[in-house]
């Protein structure tokens, strides 16, 4: 299993929106960055990801699971863009802020710290375990 982080502006698509989709899940559509798209191409069904609220909150707020591998993004006719489908697994009891992540020296190399603008990014198994611990999981 691999681990990932999916960033979303809560006023566009929030953790609550993701929860409301239930087991049906939702396409992680609208990504228009080649590096983020390529990360989605690497994802497999069952991979886990952090759901991260960007903008003001800047926190990991939930855990999601990849339920469909990369396929054409239904929001465009441009064949360059693909997406995966994800479903909510559980909320993070104590959301983990970007400030907390940056303050933890064990997470200094996390992509979120080094390239916080990237909307879909990998997370190592060690980073996953640390963030889960910080979040009360």
Explained architecture:
With 137 residues, the protein is of the alpha+beta class. It has a single domain (3-134), classed as Roll (ph1033 like fold). The protein is built from 5 helices and 6 strands, in the order βαβαβββααβα. The chain has helices at residues 15-20, 34-42, 98-103, 111-114, 125-134; strands at residues 3-8, 26-27, 48-53, 59-72, 82-97, 120-123. Strands 2-5-4-3-1-6 form a 6-stranded mixed β-sheet. The longest helix is centred in the last third of the chain and has 10 residues, at 125-134. It is globular, with a radius of gyration of 14 Å. The model has no long low-confidence stretch (mean pLDDT 96).
Can you tag this structure with a few keywords?
single chain; 137 residues; ph1033 like fold; 35% strand; globular
